[in-house]
Write a structure and sequence with these properties.
Blueprint lengths: L1 E5 L4 E6 L5 E6 L9 H9 L7 E2 L6 E4 L4 E6 L4 E7 L15 E7 L5 E7 L5 E9 L4 E9 L5 E6 L9 E6 L5 E9 L3 E10 L6 E6 L6 E5 L2 E5 L9 E4 L9 E4 L5 E5 L3 E6 L4 E7 L2 E6 L6 E6 L9 E7 L2 E10 L5 E6 L21 E6 L5 E4 L8 E2 L12 H7 L17 H12 L1 H6 L9 H12 L5 H22 L12 H7 L3 H7 L8
Antiparallel strand pairs: 1-2, 2-3, 4-5, 5-6, 6-7, 8-9, 9-10, 10-11, 12-13, 13-14, 14-15, 16-17, 17-18, 18-19, 20-21, 21-22, 22-23, 24-25, 25-26, 26-27, 27-31, 28-29, 29-30
Length: 530
C-alpha cells in the first residue's frame, strides 16, 4: 500500500505505507513562500519578478521558485527540470532568517553565462555572474558584486562580437546610471567580471535596457526617452528618441528580431520605432500587462486588458508584426497575465526581414508560454485551434529570383538572402510598402550605411518598382511583327515576282535569329560566349 502527501511547494510525495520510504516524487511549479511579513508583502504585488526567461540552448523556461532559488521548467514536456540555488540562507532560523529573493536573471546568447540579481528584505543586493561547467552542465559562481547601484532594475547581455569581450549592462534604481560590465580572463580557466564604464542621462533613472541583434547598438530607457549608445565607449548617446512630451516612463525595451524595429512600452502604451527613419512606425495605446519579442523572427506578443470588460483579469493575447499594429492572431485569456515568453523550436531560423518567411500561423514551430498571477503556466501552440482566432492572414507572392542580380554583378561573398515575400494583409502594410517603393532614395539611400541591408536584398525591390513586367511572348511577338513588315517592304521594291511565304513563327525566329539579345533573355540575362 502507498499513500501520497501534497506539500506546500506543489510537490506530491508517494510513500510506502509499510516502510515509509519515498517511492516517487512529482514536482510541479514551485511557488515562493516567505514567512517574513515584510518580504511577503513585497511579493504580493509581483511574486515572479524574473518573469519568464527562456534558456537560449535548452529552451527551458526559467522563473522564480522557492526563496533564493530559480526553477527550470520544460514547457514542452510539462515537467520540472531542476532548481538552481542563487542565494543560500539559514532554513532553521524561523522568522529571524532573512530569506532572499531572486529579482532578475538573464543568459548570454550561447548559454555559457548567467547573470542574477538577488536581494533580501533589508537593503542587501547582489549581482552575480555564473559560468556553465561543460562537464557537469551546472552553473558555478564566478563573480559577485555587492550592492551594485543600490539596486538593479534591468540587465542584459550583449550578443557576442568577434574581437570584443562579452559585455553585460545593468541599470540602477538609486544612482541614476547604467554600468557596463566586461568579461576578463586570467590564464586559461580563470574568468571574472569588472566594471568597464558608467554613463547617465540628465539625472534620470534608467528602467530598461536592450541590445541590437548584432550587439553594435545599446538602447537604454530614461524616463520616456530612448537613448542609443555605442556599448564600446558609452561617452554620449548617439541618438535620443522621444515619441511625445506626454510619453509615460518606459518599463521595457526590445529589438524585434534582427530587423530595424525597436519596441518601447509602458503600462499604457507601446511604441514601435523604425531606426532607419528615426520615427515612430506605429503606436498601440491600451492597458498593457506584458510584452515579449521572439528571439529569432520579427514577431512580438502583447497581453492587454479588454477595454470593454470590467474584470481586471479579462485579458487578450495579441501576436503582432513590427510592420503593423493590426494583430496577426488574437487569443482570449480570461485568467490574467503575469508574464509572457516565446519558446522557439530548434528549426526556427533567424530572419533579418520582418516579412521574410511569414508563416500562415505565427505560432507554427513556436510556443507562447503565459504565466498567470496565480502561478498557472498556459502554453499555446499551432495545434490550439479551439481558442484561436485568425484576425488577418498574410498573402505571399514569389519575388524575382536573386539569380538575376548574381548574373549581372556576380555572386556575393555574403550568405544568400532569403526570398522576401510581399505582404498585403491590410491597408497599413500596403501603404508602407508603397512608401518604401516610391521613396527608395530618401528612405534607404540617405540612411547610415552601416544600417542598410545588403544591395542584393534591395535590388529586386528597386528593379520591380522601376520596370514594367515583360514576358518572353511579348518580345517574340514584337520581333515577329517587325520581321513581317520588313519582308513586305522588300517585296514591294523587287521587280521579279515574289513568292509569299508563311508568317515567321517562334521556331523560325530562333533558327534564323542573329541577335544575341533575344537569346540572352531566355538564358537569364547571361551573355552568350562563342
Amino acid at each position: 500500500a502507498h499513500y501520497a502527501v501534497t506539500l506546500r511547494d506543489n510537490t506530491v510525495k508517494i510513500l510506502a505505507a509499510a516502510t515509509r520510504g519515498l517511492v516517487a516524487s512529482l514536482q510541479g511549479l514551485t511557488f515562493a513562500d516567505s514567512s517574513q511579513p515584510r518580504l511577503a508583502r513585497a511579493l504580493q504585488s509581483n511574486q515572479f519578478t524574473t518573469g519568464l526567461v527562456v534558456h537560449p540552448t535548452t529552451h527551458h523556461v526559467v522563473l522564480n521558485g522557492e526563496p533564493g532559488h530559480l526553477q527550470v521548467y520544460s514547457a514542452l514536456s510539462d515537467r520540472h527540470v531542476v532548481s538552481v540555488e542563487v542565494a543560500s540562507f539559514n532554513r532553521t532560523g524561523g522568522s529571524q532568517s532573512r530569506q532572499p529573493h531572486v529579482d532578475l536573471v538573464q543568459y548570454s546568447s550561447d548559454g555559457a553565462w548567467m547573470a542574477t540579481v538577488d536581494s533580501r528584505a533589508s537593503a542587501e543586493c547582489y549581482l552575480k555572474f555564473w559560468n556553465l561547467d561543460p562537464a557537469t552542465q551546472k552553473y558555478r559562481l564566478a563573480t559577485r558584486i555587492d550592492a551594485p547601484h543600490g539596486g538593479v532594475s534591468a540587465l542584459a547581455f550583449q550578443p557576442p562580437r568577434a574581437g570584443h569581450p562579452l559585455l553585460c549592462v545593468t541599470t540602477g534604481r538609486a544612482d541614476a546610471c547604467f554600468r557596463v560590465w566586461a568579461l576578463q580572463t586570467r590564464g586559461t580557466d580563470h574568468h571574472f567580471w569588472t566594471c568597464r564604464s558608467t554613463a547617465r542621462y540628465r539625472e534620470q533613472f534608467p528602467r530598461a535596457v536592450a541590445f541590437s541583434a548584432d550587439g553594435s547598438t545599446l538602447a537604454v530607457a530614461f524616463g520616456g526617452a530612448v537613448t542609443l549608445w555605442d556599448p564600446e565607449t558609452c561617452l554620449t548617446p548617439a541618438a535620443v528618441l522621444v515619441a511625445s512630451a506626454q510619453t509615460p516612463a518606459l518599463s521595457g525595451l526590445a529589438f524585434v528580431g534582427e530587423s530595424s524595429y525597436l519596441a518601447a512600452w509602458s503600462s499604457t502604451r507601446l511604441d514601435m520605432w523604425n531606426l532607419l527613419t528615426g520615427s515612430v512606425w506605429w503606436t498601440l495605446a491600451m492597458p498593457l500587462l506584458a510584452v515579449t519579442v521572439h528571439p529569432r523572427i520579427p514577431l512580438l506578443a502583447v497581453a492587454a486588458l479588454q477595454a470593454s470588460s470590467a474584470d481586471p483579469l479579462d485579458a487578450s493575447l495579441l501576436l503582432l508584426s513590427p510592420e503593423s499594429p493590426n494583430p496577426l492572431v488574437a487569443l482570449p485569456h480570461p485568467t490574467g497575465v503575469e508574464a509572457l515568453a516565446f519558446v522557439p523550436s530548434s528549426s526556427t531560423k533567424r530572419s533579418s526581414h520582418s516579412n521574410a518567411k511569414q508563416l500562415a500561423d505565427p505560432l507554427d514551430h513556436n510556443m507562447l508560454v503565459v504565466l498567470t498571477p496565480t502561478g498557472l503556466l498556459n502554453v499555446y501552440g499551432a495545434n490550439d485551434n479551439d481558442n484561436k482566432e485568425i484576425v488577418s492572414k498574410q498573402s505571399s507572392a514569389v519575388a524575382m529570383s536573386s539569380a538575376t542580380f548574381a548574373n549581372i554583378f556576380g555572386k556575393s561573398k555574403a550568405a544568400p538572402a532569403a526570398a522576401v515575400s510581399s505582404t498585403a494583409a491590410n491597408a497599413h502594410v500596403r501603404q508602407a510598402m508603397r512608401l518604401v517603393r516610391s521613396a527608395v532614395q530618401s528612405a534607404y539611400v540617405n540612411a547610415p550605411y552601416h544600417v542598410l541591408p545588403p544591395v542584393s536584398a534591395l535590388y529586386d525591390q528597386f528593379v520591380t518598382a522601376q520596370m514594367h513586367p515583360t514576358t518572353l511572348d511579348t518580345i517574340v511577338t514584337s520581333v515577329s511583327e517587325d520581321a513581317e513588315d520588313t519582308v513586305m517592304a522588300d517585296a514591294e521594291n523587287v521587280e521579279e515576282p515574289v513568292v509569299k511565304s508563311r508568317p515567321a513563327t517562334v521556331d523560325d525566329l530562333w533558327s534564323e535569329a542573329n541577335s544575341d539579345f533575344i537569346q540572352s533573355i531566355c538564358s537569364g540575362f547571361q551573355a552568350k560566349t562563342n
